[in-house]
Amino acid sequence: MAKEPVRVLVTGAAGQIGYALVPMIARGVMLGADQPVILHMLDIPPAAEALNGVKMELVDAAFPLLKGVVATTDAVEACTGVNVAVMVGGFPRKEGMERKDVMSKNVSIYKAQASALEKHAAANCKVLVVANPANTNALILKEFAPSIPDKNISCLTRLDHNRALGQISERLNVQVSDVKNVIIWGNHSSSQYPDVNHATVKTPAGEKPVRELVANDEWLNGEFITTVQQRGAAIIKARKLSSALSAASSACDHIRDWVLGTPEGTWVSMGVYSDGSYNVPAGLIYSFPVTCKNGEWCIVQGLPIDEFSRKKMDATAEELSEEKALAYSCLS
Ligand code: NAD
Ligand code: LMR
């Protein structure tokens, strides 16, 4: 029997990530090839005509899984009944800016949209915040939508996770799908800590640690980390626009694994509400290694943390605490 359609909200749907993301969702990349979807697309009035153009293209593409499209500038209409909400709407940073430079514009959007989601989304709606500063926008959304469970609000660091997999795969000249269990700790910013201490590569002789195969700690502790931390800026410099197809694809990976589960023995990185695991202050949205099962994520526990990692994990937590204070000062 055909499944009931799932309603997926994409805010900022007329923007460049939106344009890459909505066809992926309509093709089943996010929720599976047998899962019908109804797309809810929200943007602001100046983008209404462009949004309508995206709707026309979705109709023209005749996606078999797409059972309906709501294209609106009304947040209540957009949020009504949604099961998954991908929050992309906001202002992207430009060359020379840090992600927190877009803070004041974006946190006020997330405060307003929190109430629309809280009041009108389906019970148990899963929320993914993509717009920057992603962790802090997610925290603001969480704080202003107190009836949405903490477990249902997350932010995107899967793009950083995928970037780390990509760097290792290029360095070792192996398939990216054979590399697993990198970790992004902390903020989706240049203070994030991409950690390969537990990462492995599938080889004909079994799984081998990345550190053993790369055999160059100087690169792993230096250039590898800065390349992943600075990749967003490198893309802005090259494209004069921030990453879009990789962000859209990673947003699909994030929701797919959250809803359908992570493969056995594999974890992924998600920005989630800290419960104090790994001595990360509770009350921040911080990226952790997680496994997912039955629609729930769970932080991977018990990984040994060396002194080098500890310092980097603490530094990115410190930045998130500062961002939190700054966000509140922007809202007051
Ligand atoms: P964009 O400017 O092309 O699109 C943003 C869209 O949001 C625009 O259509 C704009 O009209 C809309 N918008 C603005 N305010 C809105 C509101 N209140 N409600 C609904 N829509 C609104 O930007 P983009 O390149 O698509 O990037 C979107 C966001 O995603 C930016 O904040 C960017 O920095 C962030 N981003 C995050 C990641 C990540 O990994 N977390 C990766 C790439 C980009
Ligand atoms: C990215 O990581 O590509 C995005 O967050 C865009 C940015 O501002 O870096």
TrEMBL record:
Pfam families: Ldh_1_C (PF02866), Ldh_1_N (PF00056). Residues 6-153 form the Lactate/malate dehydrogenase N-terminal domain. NAD(+) binds at residues 12-18, 43, 106, 130-132. Substrate binds at residues 93, 99, 132, 163. Keywords: NAD, Oxidoreductase, Tricarboxylic acid cycle. It catalyses: (S)-malate + NAD(+) = oxaloacetate + NADH + H(+). Its EC number is 1.1.1.37. One of its GO terms (biological process) is malate metabolic process. CDD domains: MDH_cytoplasmic_cytosolic (cd01336). InterPro entries: L-lactate/malate_DH, Lactate/malate_DH_C, Lactate/malate_DH_N, Lactate_DH/Glyco_Ohase_4_C, Malate_DH_AS, Malate_DH_NAD-dep_euk, Malate_DH_type2, NAD(P)-bd_dom_sf. The keyword Lipid metabolism does not apply. GO terms for molecular function: L-malate dehydrogenase (NAD+) activity. The keyword Repeat does not apply. Residues 157-325 form the Lactate/malate dehydrogenase C-terminal domain. The active site is at residue 188. Belongs to the LDH/MDH superfamily. MDH type 2 family. This is Malate dehydrogenase. The gene is MDH10.
